[in-house]
Amino acid sequence: MVRRARRFLKDARQHNVPSPHGDIPVYVFEPETETPRATVLVAHGWTSEASFMTLFGERLRHMGARAVLLDAPAHGKCKRTRSTVVDYTESILRVADAFQPDFALAHSMGCFAVLHAGGGGQPFRRHYDFKRYVLIAPPNEFGAVTREFADVRGMTPTARIMFERHLERIAHRRLSTFTASHLLRAANRPALLIHAKDDFEVPIRHSEAIVANCPSAELVPFDAMGHRKLLSSPQVVRAAVNFLMKD
Asked: Per DSSP, what are the bridge partners of residue 133?
């Protein structure tokens, strides 16, 4: 599946954005127009890579926008072997500095990273002001993700608490404040949330909670697309791009 997906990157220009921890692979879909209408940073989810987001890149290009896709640390062609959401956020900030995107579009855990970059806060002393977001199947509470991980790994309650405290030291914040709702409110920008009703990896209640706590956010639900089929749906791609490119 990865080999097939990477073929769709052939129309993108590849760049390497330097960082203290190694180069960040970036793939740029340029529009046919001489001057892009906008630039959109596109972030993939955990255990995924930039090639899985190429339908959005192609659609944005055809709409006259520049799409900037990146491989997160330890994903795709990035040579790093370990990653955290904080590492991913740092990569997004560096790519944003290099390409100055107007908007952000992300899937799953990539939503946390772009919101962290846009909402700011520890461990970073800066943020990037994305003007609009599209968040596809976003998790809301990072603590819920860690609890699920601990259950799957069979951790004892004590081990889970120690694990969560370690993550808090990395993030320099309490897990209770590390939520998509909190970060989106801090960014204070409009957001379109897209979620499948049958998503069992990240249930739609996560998006419903975000929208309930963020007046600037709206939710568009889809049927029978699970967590990943959303990325290959023409209806989803159209809804996402239309939201970003609307006047």
From this structure: 104, 191
